[in-house]
Amino acid sequence: MARALCPGSFDPVTVGHVDIIERTSRHFDEVLVAVVTNPSKAPLFDLDERKALLGEVLAHIPNVEIDSFDGLLVDFAQERKISVVVKGLRAVSDFDYEIQMAQMNHKLTGIETLFMAASPKSSYLSSSLIKEVARYGGDVTGLVPDPVLRRLADRFGRGSGND
Prior knowledge:
The chain is α/β, with parallel strands linked by helices. The protein is built from 6 helices and 5 strands.
């Protein structure tokens, strides 16, 4: 059975994330979407919120499982018996960072990383940009799934399409 791992902070999950996960799910029997906990970052949404949002927005994909981890990605992948990581790439700057990670992960355990180009309609999106726009009252309708839009509106009180 072919299994893939799609890791990320998903703070918050965007339509770009959903697109990569949907496309990955068409090529693998199972896709494990794993929320990374990073102690050096202060997320907008806590781990349980991010997992719940992912569960809600990915519920339509039957072969997706949601989990979380801290520590090394390769250790988590080995524990879950996954040998392929799928990462979305938006721009050359993503590639510069991700290729180094992929090469280190391969050196450590032999895990393969497959890169999937972001769809043109979402290639400019990032969770950081979404948070900044929503925080300052900008409308992020269509850039995040509806459950995320509602949570952003709750969190910031306005500017997330529900004014």
